[in-house]
Structure prediction request, 78 residues.
Amino acid sequence: MSDSNSKVVSKNAKAGAGTGARGGTNSASPAETRRAIAVLAYRYAERRNFEPGHELDDWLEAENEVLAEREGFKGFPS
Prediction:
């Protein structure tokens, strides 16, 4: 996967994560969040040439990344 594709993935994963009508709060709908996760999970599978058996891992990794970005949370505190 090229660097330019990685940038597209990040952009797609962040779609809908902007500020909302509530004055700067995260207003992404559950459908927008689910779509961002699906797009990113697909990209992870694509990077592996769609090798079977990793679907759940791809989804969970994408879900963690999207939710962390939307909530401004990066990992557990040390």
Q: What stands out?
A: The mean pLDDT is 74.
